[in-house]
Specification:
- The complex is a heterodimer of chains A (about 300) and B (about 400).
- Chain A is an all-alpha fold and about 300 residues long.
- Chain A contains eleven helices and two strands.
- Chain A has helices at about 10-45, 50-70, 70-95, 105-125, 150-175, 175-185, 185-190, 195-220, 230-245, 250-270, 275-290; strands at about 140-145, 150.
- Chain A has a two-stranded antiparallel sheet with strand order 1-2.
- With about 400 residues, chain B is α/β, with parallel strands linked by helices.
- Chain B is about 40% helix and about 20% strand.
- Chain B contains 14 helices and 16 strands.
- Chain B has helices at about 1-20, 45-60, 80-90, 105-115, 145-160, 175-190, 210-215, 230-240, 255-265, 265-270, 285-295, 300-320, 325-335, 385, and strands at about 25-35, 60-65, 65-75, 95-100, 120-125, 140, 165-170, 195-200, 220-225, 250, 270-275, 340, 345-350, 355, 360-365, 375-380.
- In chain B, the strands form four sheets. Chain B has a six-stranded mixed sheet, with helices on both faces. In chain B, strands 8-7-9-10 form a four-stranded parallel sheet, sandwiched between helices.
- In chain B, helix 8 (about 230-240) links the parallel strand 9 (about 220-225) and strand 10.
- Chain B is globular, with a radius of gyration of 22 Å.
- Classes of the chains: A mainly alpha (about 300), B alpha/beta (about 400).
- The interface between A and B is large, with 46 and 49 residues.
Chain lengths: ~300, ~400
C-alpha cells in the first residue's frame, strides 16, 4: 500500500522521461545560478535579492498581461528590462555604498531587500499566487513515445541553453567581457585605462537582475506567479552556485543542469529526499573541494 | 496566635481554590498560531486572526466581566518553532487557548503541550485525524474538518462514481500520511484498489516527476493528498502534462476556495471537493462572509470561518461556567450542541471531533460563474455521522469501550 519501492527500478523509457523532466528543472537552476555567478564574480556581492528579482520578473509578466494586455513574448523582453532598471537603481542607491566592505554586508543588505519586496507582494497578493496561462503558441505537447512532453517545457530547455551559452560567451569571449573580468581583478588599473568601472559594475548588476527576471517570466506559466516563488528556489540555487564554484560562469551552468538531473532521479528512487539531496551534495563538495568544482580559488 | 495563623492559612487556601475556579490572571487570552507567510498563509494566516477579532468583538471584548486579549504568531510550518511559541505563550504570556494551527505536524506538537498544561486547543486549520485518534486530548476540540471527513467526502464520492484504482501523490508529513491512510481505507471499503503512492516533500514547486510516476501507474484516479501551494502546483502541472486527456482523473482531497481563486476556473473547473463551509450557501453564511470580506477583501476559507465559530463556542462556555480552566471549559463545550452560521446541530464527540455536516462541491465552469469568488455548486450534503464515521475502532484512549 505505502510501497514507494514500487518504482524502484522503473523501465528504461520511464527513466528517460524522468531525466528529461529533471533537465527542465535544471534549466531554471542554471539560469538563476548564472545571474548569481555573474554578480558574485564581478561585484563580489552575494545577491540574496536574486529570488525576489526572479519573482518580480514573473509578476511583471502578470501585470503586463492583466493590466496592459501585453502577452508572453513581449514580456520576455519587457520584464527583464524593467527589473534590470530596478536592479540598477538598487546598485546605484544602496550597494554602491558598501563596495569594498566584507561580503557579509552585501549579503545582509540584499537579504533585507528580498524580505521587504516579498513582504509587500505577499501583503498585496496573498501567498497562493496568480494564474498565468501558457502562451497559445506553446500549448499542448507531443508524444515522444516514452513520455508526453509539453511544448512549453521543450521551449524552456532550448531558451535557457541559449541564454546560458550567450552569457558565457559574452563574459568569457568578448572584449566587453574581458574588461569586466579585468575590472574584477584590478579596478584601479582598468580605470586608469579610461574605462568607467563604477558604471560597468552598475550595469552588470542590472544585467544579473534582468537574467533573474527572464527566468521568472519563463517560470510564470509553469508555477503560480506567487510572492513565495523566489524564496522557494533561491536557497537551492545558492547550493548550486556553491557546488559549481562561487563566481564561475561555466560552473554555474553545468552544475545547474547536472543537479536538476540528480534531483529528478532522486524523485524516482527516494522521493522523500528530493528536497534535501542538493544540500547533501553541497556539504560533501565543501568537504572535498571547498572551492567548488569549477572554482578559481580553493 | 497559632490559631490565628491556622485560620489565616485555611482562609488563603480556600481563597486560592476559589480563585482557580475563576478566570486566571483576570484576563482570557487567546493565541492564534498559524502559517502567516508561507504556502498555507491564505488558508488561515492573517484571515484567521481577523476572524478571531470578529468573534471577540461580538462579546464586546469581555467575557464574565474579564477582558479578552488576542495575540498571534507565525509557526512557519515548523513543529519546533510552533512548540517553542506554545510553551512561551502558556508559561510566560498567560495564554488560555491556542487556536487554528494548520500543518498537522505542528498541531500534534502543540497538542501535546496543551494537554500537559491542561490548556485549551481549538483546531481549525490542521486536518490529521490522529489529533482525535491516538493522540487525542481532553482539552482539545477539532473544530472544522479532518482527514476522515475528507476521505469519506471526496474519496467516497469518487470511488462510488467508478474511480476504483488510485495512485496517491502525498505530502510527506503527518497530514499527508493521515489523508492517504484514511482515503485508502474508504477506497478499499468500496472495493477499490490503491496501486501505489509517492511521497513529495512539503512545499515542492515542480510536481512533474511525481505526475509522470502517477501516469505510469495507469491508475484511474490520481489522489492529491496535499494542500495549499502544493495542490495548486499539482493541478496546474497535471493540466500541462495532459493527465486528464490521457484518461486519468485528479481527486483533490483537500482543496480550499483560496486555491481555486489562485488557480482560476479555467484550470480548476470540474474538480470535486469537500468543505465544511462555502460563503455563498445561505443567508447566514453570506452575512458573516460579507463582514469578513469588508475587512480582508477576500472571501473566507472554511478554516477562517471555523476559527470564528470555535472561539464563539469557547467564550460561551467560559461565560456559562465562569471559569477559564481548560478541562472545565472543554467539558462544557462538549456538553453544548453547536449551532452557528456554518454549523447545524453539531456535536463534539468524546474524542474531541466536532461532528458536523460536510458538503460536496463541484467547481463551476468559467461560463457558469458570475465573477470572482463565485466558484462552487453544491452536489450533496454529507450528514455529520456519515462524514466523520471512522473505519475501524476509535483509537482515542478517552473513549471508553
Amino acid at each position: 500500500m505505502f510501497n514507494s519501492l514500487y518504482f524502484a527500478i522503473p523501465p528504461a523509457p520511464a527513466l528517460f522521461a524522468q531525466l528529461l523532466v529533471g533537465l527542465i528543472n535544471g534549466a531554471f537552476y542554471a539560469m538563476l545560478s548564472l545571474g548569481l555567478a555573474v554578480i558574485f564574480g564581478l561585484l563580489n556581492i552575494i545577491n540574496f535579492a536574486h529570488g525576489a528579482q526572479y519573482m518580480l520578473g514573473a509578476f511583471c509578466a502578470w501585470f503586463l498581461l492583466n493590466a496592459l494586455g501585453v502577452g508572453y513574448w513581449a514580456a520576455l523582453i519587457l520584464a527583464p528590462i524593467a527589473v534590470g532598471i530596478f536592479g540598477i537603481a538598487i546598485e546605484h542607491l544602496l550597494l554602491r555604498h558598501i563596495r569594498g566592505l566584507d561580503h557579509l554586508y552585501g549579503l545582509l543588505l540584499t537579504f533585507g531587500l528580498a524580505l521587504i519586496i516579498e513582504g509587500v507582494f505577499r501583503q498585496q497578493f496573498g501567498s497562493s499566487g496568480q494564474p498565468y496561462a501558457i502562451p497559445p503558441e506553446l500549448q499542448g505537447g507531443r508524444n515522444l513515445g516514452f513520455m508526453f512532453l509539453p511544448n512549453y517545457r521543450a521551449w524552456v530547455i532550448v531558451a535557457s541553453l541559449l541564454v546560458c551559452l550567450g552569457t558565457w560567451f559574452a563574459i568569457e569571449r568578448t572584449r566587453l567581457g574581458a574588461y569586466l573580468r579585468a575590472a574584477t581583478e584590478n579596478p584601479v588599473l582598468v580605470q586608469a585605462f579610461g574605462i568607467n568601472v563604477p558604471r560597468m559594475v552598475t550595469l552588470t548588476y542590472g544585467g544579473g537582475a534582468a537574467l533573474a527576471a527572464l527566468a521568472g517570466v519563463m517560470a510564470a506559466p509553469i508555477y503560480q506567479v506567487s510572492p513565495l516563488m523566489g524564496s522557494n528556489i533561491i536557497i537551492t540555487v545558492f547550493a548550486v552556485v556553491v557546488i559549481g564554484g562561487m563566481g564561475s560562469i561555466l560552473g554555474a551552468i553545468v552544475s545547474g543542469f547536472v543537479l536538476g538531473l540528480v534531483e529528478g532521479l532522486t524523485k524516482v528512487f527516494y522521493p522523500e529526499a528530493s528536497s534535501t539531496v542538493i544540500f547533501v551534495i553541497m556539504a560533501v563538495v565543501l568537504l572535498i573541494k571547498p572551492g567548488g568544482f569549477f572554482g578559481r580559488v580553493g | 496566635m497559632k490559631i490565628a495563623a491556622i485560620f489565616g492559612l485555611t482562609a488563603s487556601l480556600v481563597l486560592t481554590t476559589a480563585a482557580s475556579a475563576q478566570i486566571s490572571g483576570d484576563v482570557v487570552k487567546i493565541g492564534v498560531l498559524n502559517d502567516m507567510s508561507g504556502l498555507y498563509a491564505d488558508i488561515g494566516g492573517p484571515g484567521s486572526v481577523e476572524a478571531a477579532r470578529m468573534a471577540i468583538a461580538v462579546f464586546g471584548g469581555t467575557v464574565d466581566g474579564k477582558k479578552i486579549e488576542l495575540i498571534s504568531a507565525d509557526h512557519q510550518n515548523k513543529p519546533d518553532v510552533g512548540a517553542a511559541i506554545a510553551n512561551r505563550w502558556f508559561d510566560n504570556d498567560g495564554v488560555d487557548a491556542i487556536v487554528d494551527v494548520p500543518t498537522s505536524s505542528v498541531a500534534l506538537a502543540v497538542q501535546e503541550i496543551a494537554r500537559n498544561k491542561k490548556k485549551v486547543f481549538l483546531i481549525s486549520g490542521a486536518a490529521a485525524s490522529d489529533l482525535t485518534g491516538k493522540a487525542c486530548s481532553p482539552t482539545s476540540v477539532h473544530w472544522t474538518y479532518d482527514t476522515v471527513a475528507l476521505a469519506n467526502g471526496t474519496g467516497g464520492a469518487v470511488v462510488k462514481a467508478g474511480g476504483n484504482t488510485w495512485f496517491f501523490i502525498t505530502a510527506d508529513y503527518a497530514f499527508g500520511h493521515a489523508l492517504e491512510r484514511d482515503t485508502t481505507r474508504v477506497v478499499e471499503e468500496h472495493g477499490g484498489k490503491v496501486l501505489g503512492s509517492v511521497r513529495a516533500p512539503l512545499n515542492t514547486s515542480d510536481f512533474s516527476s511525481f505526475l509522470l510516476q502517477a501516469q505510469a501507474s495507469k491508475a484511474k484516479i490520481i489522489g492529491l493528498a496535499n494542500a495549499g501551494g502544493d495542490t495548486i502546483n499539482s493541478i496546474k502541472q497535471a493540466a500541462e502534462f495532459g493527465i486528464v486527456e490521457g484518461g486519468q482523473n485528479l481527486a483533490g482531497l483537500l482543496v480550499f476556495i483560496s486555491d481555486i481563486h489562485s488557480l482560476g476556473l479555467q484550470a480548476a473547473h470540474g474538480l470535486q471537493l469537500t468543505e465544511a463551509f462555502y460563503w455563498d450557501q445561505n443567508d447566514a453564511t453570506r452575512t458573516w462572509s460579507k463582514r469578513f470580506f469588508d475587512k480582508m477583501n477576500r472571501q473566507p476559507t472554511m478554516v477562517q470561518a471555523g476559527v470564528y465559530g470555535a472561539i464563539m463556542h469557547y467564550l460561551a462556555a467560559i461565560k456559562a461556567t465562569g471559569s477559564d480552566d481548560g478541562t472545565t471549559v472543554v467539558k462544557q463545550m462538549k456538553a453544548t450542541p453547536v449551532t452557528d452560521f456554518m454549523t447545524k446541530n453539531g456535536k463534539i464527540r468524546e474524542d474531541g471531533t466536532l461532528v458536523r455536516d460536510m458538503y460536496l462541491f463541484e467547481v463551476k465552469k468559467p461560463s457558469e460563474s458570475k465573477g470572482p469568488w463565485d466558484y462552487y455548486k453544491q452536489i450533496s450534503v454529507i450528514p455529520g455521522e456519515e462524514a466523520f464515521k471512522l473505519q475501524g475502532p476509535n483509537q482515542c484512549p478517552l473513549v471508553k469501550g
